[in-house]
Amino acid sequence: MNRIVVTGGAGRLGRRVISDLIDRDYEVSAVDIVAADDLGCPFQQMDLTDRDAVCRALEGAEAVLHLGAVPGPTVADGPVTFRNNVLSTYNVVEVAADFGLSKIVFASSLFTIGWAEDANCYWPKYVPVDEQHPLTPFEAYGLSKVIGEEICAAASRRTGIPTVSLRITNIIQPEKFAELPWPAPTRSDPVRFTLWPYVALEDAATACRLAIETETKGHEAFFIAARDNRFDCPMRDLLSEFAPQVEIRGELAGTASVLSIEKARRILGYEPQHDWTTS
């Protein structure tokens, strides 16, 4: 590819993605709302809610990895998160479509399925959760990511440009693996379901690269996670204790993840290489 633009390039995932792409001889440029002069590639500081700025960023690009966003439900007030994430995604995707880029990859989130402040508020209909499971966000961040996926899907329907939404789970940086496993949830100290799974920073970055490299059609969404969860405890036991109403599909042996990564394996060739038992 002639040039890949990475939005959110100054963030933890953006930096790793840029490094991975440069190591494989891709031509990369980056943008972010915060300054960065140590990325090893051309960089522009800009606000992605400004369409003219997005046009400047994507001029001459062949593909875009859109990672730039308010990065979680508690970072900013709901209206700020919603406006920033939805408008920036709309601008990036629509400008990329207008320019005829060959691929658009969007960093969606596990929180699309239902993160909530109350740990007992959300449980899925079944596990492992796959891409057919309903998306039922509770708050502005998750909602912004669901709308982002729909923006991508609309662009693919209209233009035929392939778009990919990566529902990335809670990213663990290498130095944070020493904090795992977490203590198993208890009635007095529960843990939100959406915090059970995780993914290593390196594996999330690999998934971003694979999404760019793999030939896809239309819009596709993928869960990106490790093979296991954060707890050294059988998942069946935890679900039986906290959510016996949740249907368990398949084996779900031992500490196996409550998210299915089979679609990402099958289509993208994604195979996580890092987990807390070996890192």
Task: Walk me through the structure.
The protein has helices spanning 12-23, 51-58, 78-99, 140-159, 201-213, 235-242, 262-268, and strands spanning 4-7, 28-32, 43-45, 63-66, 103-109, 126-127, 163-168, 171-172, 199-200, 219-224, 247-248. The protein is 32% helix and 15% strand. The strands form 3 sheets. A 7-stranded parallel β-sheet has the order 3-2-1-4-5-7-10, with helices on both faces. Strands 6-11 form a two-stranded parallel sheet. The model has no long low-confidence stretch (mean pLDDT 96). Helix 1 (12-23) links the parallel strand 1 and strand 2 (28-32). It has a single domain (4-268), classed as NAD(P)-binding Rossmann-like Domain (Rossmann fold), CATH 3.40.50. The chain is an alpha/beta fold.
